[in-house]
Amino acid sequence: QVQLVESGGGLVQAGGSLRLSCVASGRTFSSYGWFRQAPAKEREFVAAINWSGGSTDYADSVKGRFTISRNNAKNTVYLQMNSLKPEDTAVYYCATDSTFSSLRVVAGTWSRSWGQGTQVTVSS
User: Fold this and answer.
1) Eight-state DSSP code of residue 52
2) Burial of 27 (0-12, 13-18, 19+ CB in 10 A)
3) Which of 36, 65, 67, 102 could form a disulfide with 90 if both were Cys (CB 3.0 to 4.6 A apart)?
């Protein structure tokens, strides 16, 4: 089965940057997304990318600050996070699903697979 492993999280000051990576192994679907879950909050959509990287989608809260990309040769999806804010503090999860549009839905389809998450903490 598909395995997704996130990395790159850590502690950063407000205004700083982090680059998250999601490495996929096993059989995966073509579309990927990033989600996050802050303490005491529900998991929310952050960004999605289709198989070619030609189509991307972002939550309004991160648009202009975050960039999702992928390197298919490395089976890796990235989330470049710039101008980080304390409200970006959350556990960030990588996910894959059967369609690009399904990544907009947190619950996804029954094909949804999740990584274990990586903690991002932004200090003020």
Assistant:
1) S
2) exposed
3) 36
